[in-house]
Write a structure and sequence with these properties.
Strand order of the largest sheet: 1-9-16-15-12-14-13
Largest sheet: 7 strands, mixed
Mean pLDDT: 86
Strand content: 15-25%
Number of helices: 27
Distance between the termini: 42 Å
Structural class: alpha/beta
Low-confidence stretches: 1-45
Radius of gyration: 27 Å
């Protein structure tokens, strides 16, 4: 955890750092605006104030040479910013202030003091400021002061506080930092982690004696709330609930967490407490509204970032086209994975402490392996200073990597978003982001991992061969001139709410006075739960009727069942786990699986036992699963005319089946072959947006029956690729189907649907922004330099039909005609 403060006076020096304007600089819609001067350029200083190379110098070295410089499509410069101090709130205990002074924090920033005042007033508050702005201190000031007050109570346990983090790594990092900070307070503050990695012999101590418990929503859902009688003294004294990185609670996961928090509030009321919720978020649009939906309570907003910031040089980087050709002869760009591995290698050779963020677990492993191989060719002593970090590692492996990163033993790390969230990695010089991470909020969160000690930093986003990434590196204003997204979640989703009503009833019988807490759809769901034999009404309350634990009805991360264990066939050694929802695509028979730099081939996937047996191997290829999808309309909620066509939103049923996988050559991505698979289909009831076109519209767009399927298919692929720019989703959170004549609409139709039961709010957002979304989709296809369609515009990496048929020009004409009739938003 970083409080990210400089000693008094040091922040003034930040404002005096040399500012190096660059051409193409555009304003960024956050809490600051970058320098836009472009007519008085000067050479960047070779070194920064610390004597290390300046971010611009590091970037110039990365982009040196004719072939490299052409890959740099845009450079954004955010100049340094001085901080604004405030006085310590007068209700903060002097002992806490003294402890903070000892840690080098002489004064709070203005936003920290304001948030603490709201908390001390008993108001729930969300602090939504930039990365490294010291949000931790904003909530720790009132928490530590209140715990110190409680320690002086003559009887009883005193006050308690609960901290929730989306990842185990962040909770462990926070606990370590709080222990250091609160050391001068003696035993008045007793922090402890309580999660799945906590040894059983320590758990009783946490329940009985800790007054600051750090956990995650999963453990709250499965471990703490179902066992609330054992936590009664803690819950009775609960004064604050801290929800860190709350912008990550979106979609289905966010909706589940919202209901877990309502269950927590209900049990607190049962024990006589009414805790104040303190939330910390990355910069977000309308954070108070999202926080209110998450907690079900009114929330004050603090979003004016008063912290200082070192300069940030942010580069957009597009890998070059290769001489290879992919499906249907399309040109192929060098992969973002290979390009990122090269950049991480070069940064390591420059002595720059760096993280490369990558979307997939396999990608993180592959980048570290490639970087290690290239470092070995130059200097074998550097090989051990680069590693991978991802979810699915065993606890001791994660902790060892975190320690090595903190100590500086590691220079380079290829990581999934498991390290995006708040873990203090002070002193990093650079961040490389392999592909747009799905939202602008995540982009800035990842970029903010560097420069956390106040020094200048470099961030580089490497574009994947993907419509959205290609669009962004050539339209930087979509990143730097747009505000971050609103958080999308739907706590009233019946697929989410129903299992939490069962869990709540098992914790305490559910009564009518609880209905308002859980939302307006409760009266509709209870009869269905009764008829299913899950709940039974006795007098005025509903009771859980079964022997099994109600909390086990749902996985709050929406992963659809127990994780699949990855086991080495020859030894029986457990290597790690894979989410159940990803098992068909990640560990099917014949899949290449990477773990800790070693490569394995999956020999068998046992779905009944949730086990994948693997064997170490060294194939010269990677694997990509392919699937097929069918869709039917269950209910149309709303339908609006778009000229002769229509735009609709409603409920659908999707049937999906993984049918084969491709073998692709490492580095180049060249397809080597396809192999069939025999896996069972999966059925999903969810929400979708869809649009139809008529014969007259097809005639106007010059779309004949021979190219209709290809035009629809190309428009579907590109629209899926572009949606993450308008909704807080990942491309892999959504799916699509296009049909020249759909049996339910009786017209050519394109569907885009949420990939989660009951929906996640993404399709609804697409419906409400459809004109802007599809306009950008058309522009992305039309501006691509390829002739007939490629992965940068209309080809999809997960297409079950082998990207056939596709008609690029037809998709442009079709979208042009459709948008002609679109109403203003």
């Amino acid at each position: 955890m970083a409080f990210n403060h400089l000693r008094a006076g040091e922040h003034d020096a930040l404002g005096a750092l040399s500012v190096t304007p660059v051409t193409h600089s555009v304003p960024m819609a956050m809490n600051h605006r970058p320098d836009r001067r472009s007519d008085d350029r000067q050479e960047p200083p070779a070194t920064g104030p610390s004597g290390r190379p300046s971010p611009r110098t590091v970037l110039d070295r990365l982009a040196s040479g004719e072939s490299r410089s052409a890959r740099l499509t845009h450079t954004e410069h955010l100049p340094p910013r001085a901080g604004r101090h405030a006085l310590w709130p007068d209700r903060i205990r002097p002992e806490v202030i003294a402890a903070l002074n000892s840690a080098g924090i002489d004064h709070p920033w203005a936003h920290q003091a304001l948030a603490a005042e709201h908390a001390l007033d008993g108001d729930c508050v969300v602090v939504a400021t930039g990365t490294a702005s010291g949000k931790s201190l904003a909530y720790l000031m009132p928490v530590l002061s209140t715990l110190l007050d409680g320690s002086e109570a003559p009887n009883g346990r005193g006050a308690t506080a609960l901290y929730l983090a989306p990842t185990k790594a962040l909770a462990a990092d926070q606990c370590r930092a709080v222990k250091e900070l609160a050391a001068p307070l003696g035993h008045a503050v007793r922090p402890a982690v309580y999660d799945g990695d906590t040894p059983f012999e320590e758990r009783e101590w946490v329940r009985q004696y800790a007054n600051y418990a750090l956990t995650n929503p999963d453990m709250l859902h499965r471990g703490i709330l179902p066992s609330h009688p054992r936590w009664s003294s803690f819950l009775r004294a609960l004064r604050y609930v801290v929800i860190d990185e709350c912008h990550t609670y979106r979609g289905v996961f966010g909706s589940h967490v919202a209901q877990v928090l309502r269950r927590l509030r209900r049990l607190c009321a049962r024990y006589g407490s009414d805790p104040v919720f303190l939330l910390a978020s990355a910069t977000a649009a309308d954070p108070s509204t999202a926080a209110e939906r998450l907690t079900g309570l009114p929330v004050k907003e603090v979003a004016d970032d008063a912290s200082p910031r070192g300069e940030l040089v942010f580069a957009l980087w597009e890998p070059p086209l290769t001489e290879l050709h992919g499906e249907k002869g399309a040109p192929v760009r060098r992969t973002a994975t290979a390009e990122t591995a090269d950049l991480l290698t070069d940064l390591t050779l420059q002595g720059q402490r760096s993280i490369a963020f990558v979307r997939s677990r396999r990608g993180a492993e592959l980048i570290s392996v490639i970087a290690q191989e290239r470092l070995a060719e130059i200097d074998r002593s550097l090989v051990g200073r680069v590693a991978a970090y991802r979810g699915g590692y065993l606890p001791h492996e994660r902790r060892a990597l975190e320690r090595a990163l903190h100590s500086g033993e590691l220079l380079g790390l290829a990581a999934t978003t498991a390290l995006e969230l708040g873990v203090d990695i002070s002193g990093l010089d650079a961040v490389v982001i392999a592909g747009y991470p799905g939202t602008r909020a995540s982009l800035w969160q990842q970029a903010g991992r560097a420069g956390r000690s106040g020094q200048g930093a470099l961030a580089v986003m490497v574009a994947r061969d993907d419509p959205l990434d290609t669009f962004l590196v050539h339209h930087p204003e979509a990143l730097f001139q747009q505000p971050v997204e609103s958080t999308v979640l739907d706590p009233d989703n019946p697929y989410v709410l129903a299992p939490h009503l069962c869990a709540a009833a098992s914790e305490l019988p559910l009564k009518e006075e609880d209905f308002a807490l859980f939302g307006p759809t409760v009266p509709e769901l209870l009869p269905q739960l009764e008829s299913a034999g899950l709940l039974r009404r006795r007098t005025k309350a509903w009771h859980w009727t079964r022997r099994e634990r109600a909390a086990d009805l749902t996985d709050i991360r929406g992963e659809g069942g127990p994780p699949v264990q990855v086991v080495e066939a020859g030894t029986g050694r457990l290597l790690g786990t894979v989410d159940a929802s990803a098992s068909h695509t990640a560990v099917h028979e014949g899949a290449v699986h990477l773990h800790q730099g070693r490569t394995y081939l999956v020999k068998e996937l046992d779905l009944e036992e949730s086990v994948a047996l693997v064997q170490e191997a060294n194939p010269s290829y990677s694997t990509t699963a392919r699937d097929t999808t069918a869709i039917s309309v269950l209910d149309t909620d709303v339908s609006v005319p778009w000229g002769d066509g229509r735009l609709c939103y409603g409920s659908v049923e999707v049937t999906n089946q993984v049918v084969s996988f491709l073998r692709r050559r490492l580095i180049t991505g060249e397809v080597l072959g396809e192999q069939k698979l025999d896996l069972p289909p999966r059925t999903l009831r969810t929400r979708a947006v869809w649009w139809t076109v008529t014969e007259d519209q097809l005639d106007a767009a010059r779309i004949n029956p021979e190219i209709l399927g290809g035009a629809l298919h190309a428009a579907e692929h590109a629209s899926i690729g572009m949606l993450p720019l308008f909704a807080t989703c990942d491309r892999w959170d959504i799916g699509g189907v296009s049909v020249p004549l759909h049996p339910d609409t009786l017209l050519p139709t394109v569907f885009v649907y949420d990939g989660h039961p009951g929906g996640a709010g993404f399709a609804e957002r697409a419906f409400h922004t459809a004109r802007t979304w599809l306009t950008a989709t058309r522009a992305a296809i039309a501006s691509c330099e390829c002739e007939a369609g490629c992965p940068s515009c209309v080809q999809s990496p997960k297409c079950g039909n082998g990207n056939d048929p596709l008609h690029k020009r037809g998709a442009v004409r079709l979208l042009t005609e459709l948008l002609r009739g679109a109403p203003e938003e």
